[in-house]
Amino acid sequence: EMTVAPNPFQILTWWAAHTNDIRLGTAVVVAPYWHPINVAGEAALLDLYSGGRLDFGIGSGAYQREFDRMTPGLKQTEGWRYMQEMLPAVKALWAGDYAHEGEFWSFPTSTSVPKPVQKPHPPIWIAARAPVSYDFAVKEGCNIISWPLTRPMSEAELYKERLEEAMAANPGCARPTFAMMRHTALYDRKEDWEVPVRSVQRLLGQFENLFKNLGDVENGFPKQIDLGDLVNRDEFNAQMLHDNLMFGTPDEVIAKLKPYEALGVDKFIYSANTGLGLAEQKRSMELFINEVMPAFKETRATAAAQ
């Protein structure tokens, strides 16, 4: 239960009170489950509480099971239409008085109270996989969150191609910041490589249950699909997971991140959702902060000097 937050603004408000400098991001607000007025107000209030540290991420939604409960009758494949209607409305509410007549929401003149601390609004991120989402992000001047799941580097290259296609289709638009997320786990000894792999296999077995909407969920927890049905598939093969995900010693993870930097990925998103215990998670983050991040600070400094 401690890996799930029903409202991203609640948990980030807690983090705002316990931190001073780090950015606080929603990844993501699922547009079809919200009303634009609620989103605008809650996001702006968090930006105020945090002293202007909010990064606002919004997306279309992933699981049909959730859609069946939050928006009965709506197909997950249609969620992007809600996101594309919601975001301009939220931005308008942050700016001042605004009335909306749309396909999914209608409301008379309203506004966000309070307004965001960051002007004209917090940085906005779009969760994007399909070309339509890349195109929308570029048109709206939003940054991009991409996630190649457990797939190889070719999937990351595909997303970069979609960004370039969206840029070519929208001349004059600024290039967005392009971020990519991977499951991440660092450890001290190479021989421990199977620990995070086995853990994430169990997690992915539950993910597959939700993704396929199999309905085998009890008390909020999806039953894990038999790993015997998964390990022979490329997405769940142990060696493939080790190779494709950010699993390894600090030196191994640095080497794995270099191709993403060369591809043109601007920001890396460390996904800690691997099913590991708290001690292992804390050690992984310590290794990433203390040994991996400095390697890329030096790279950026060298590039700037040149």
How far apart are the termini? Answer: 48 Å
SS elements, strand count: 12
Can you tell me the CATH topology of the largest domain? Answer: TIM Barrel
Q: Approximately what portion of the residues adopt beta-strand conformation? A: 15-25%
Overall shape: it is globular
- Identify the CATH homologous superfamily of the largest domain: Luciferase-like domain
Contiguous helical run count: 10
The helix content, as a percent range, equals 40-55%
Q: Give the uncertain stretches in residue-range form.
A: none
Q: Biggest sheet: strands, sense, closure?
A: 8 strands, parallel
CATH class of the largest domain: Alpha Beta
- Order of H and E elements: HEEHEHHEEEHEHEHEEHEHEH
Radius of gyration, in Å, reads 20 Å
Structural class: alpha/beta
- Just name the CATH architecture of the largest domain: Alpha-Beta Barrel
- Mean residue pLDDT: 92
Structure explained in plain terms:
Strands 1, 2, 3, 6, 7, 8, 11 and 12 form an 8-stranded parallel beta sheet that branches. A two-stranded antiparallel ribbon has the order 4-5. A two-stranded antiparallel ribbon has the order 9-10. The longest helix is centred in the C-terminal third of the chain and has 28 residues, at 278-305. Helix 2 links the parallel strand 2 (29-30) and strand 3. The model has no long low-confidence stretch (mean pLDDT 92). The protein has helices at 8-18, 36-49, 64-70, 79-95, 131-140, 153-169, 194-212, 238-244, 250-263, 278-305; strands spanning 24-25, 29-30, 54-59, 98-101, 106-110, 124-127, 143-146, 178-186, 217-218, 221-222, 246-248, 267-271. It has 10 helices and 12 strands. Helix 1 packs parallel to helix 2 (36-49) and helix 5 (131-140) crosses helix 6 (153-169). The chain is globular, with a radius of gyration of 20 Å. The protein is 47% helix and 16% strand. The chain has 2 domains: 1-121, Luciferase-like domain (TIM Barrel, Alpha-Beta Barrel), CATH 3.20.20.30; 128-305, TIM Barrel (Alpha-Beta Barrel). The protein has 306 residues and is an alpha/beta fold.
